[in-house]
Amino acid sequence: MIGAPDVVALARQEEEEAAAGGGAEAWREPPLPEEYSVPLAPFGGHGASPWARAGGSKFLRDFILVAEFSEQVGPQPLLTVPDDAKVPGSFDLNYFSLRIMSVDYQASFVGHPPGCAYPKLNFVEDSKVVLGDSKEGAFAYVHHLTLYDLEARGFVRPFCMAYISADEHKIMQQFQELSAEFSKASECLKTGNRKAFASELEKKLKDLDYTRSVLHGETEIQKKANDKGYYTTQAIEKANELASVEKSIIEHQDLLKQIRSYPYRKLKDSDFHPYEPECAPDQASVGSDQDLAASDLAEPGETTPYSHVPSYTPKLIKAKSAKCFDKKLKTLEELCDIYFFTQTLDQLHQIERTFRGDVCYLLTNQISRALLKQQSITNFLFEDASFLDEKAPEKHYRGCQELGQDAVERKCSEESPTPKVVVSLGSYKSSVECVPIKMEQDIDDPPEPAMTESITFEHQENLDYLDADIKGSISSGESIEVLGTEKSASGLTKSESQASLPISPSPQAGRSKVGSRRTVSEDSIEVLSTCPSEALIPEDFKASYPSAINEEPYADDEEGGLRFAPRLNPDDADEPEDGSNPENPAQVDSACCIGKESPRFLEPLPSPGPRPCDEDGVVRIPPQPYRQAEQGPCGGFAGSPHPDGVPGGLLPHELDSRYPAGGRELSRTSLDECSDSTSYISSAASTCSDRTPSPAHPPCPASERHKKKAGQNALRFIRQYPFAHPAIYSLLSGRTLIVLGEDEAIVKKLVTALSIFVPSCGVRAKPVKHWLTAPLHVVDFQRWKLVGLQRTASPAGVNVLHALSRYSRYVSILDADSKTLRCPLYRGAVVARLADHRTQIKRGSTYYMHVQSVLTQLCSKAFLFAFCHHLHLPVAESEPEEAVASRRVSFLKHHLGLANEDLKIVQYLAELLKLRYIQEPGQGANPLLRFDYVPSFLYKI
Amino acid sequence: MLRWLIGGGREPQGLAEKSSVQTIGEEQIQNPYTELLVLKGHQDIVRFLVQIDDCRFASAGDDGIIFLWNAQTGEKLFELHGHTQKITAIAPFSSSDDSEEKSNLILTASADKTVIVWDCTTGRQVQKVSCFHSTVKCLTVLQRLDVWLSGGSDLCVWNRKLDLLCKTSHLTDAGISTLVELPKNCVAAAVGKELIIFRLTASSDKSEGWNILEVKRLVDHHDNILSLVSVNDLTFVTGSHVGELIVWDAIDWTKQASECNFWESSVHPDSQTEIKLSQSPNETSVQHLTSDEECVFAAVGKGIYVYNLQMKRVIACQRTAHDSSVLHIEKLPNRQLISCSEDGSVRIWELREKQQVPAEPVPTGFFNMWGFGRANKQANQAAKKTQENTTMHFLELVGDLIGHSSAVQMFLYFGELGLVTCSADHLVILWKDGERESRLRSLTLFQKLAQNGDLQLKF
Question: So where does this one cross the membrane (chain B) (predicted)?
Answer without folding.
Answer: none
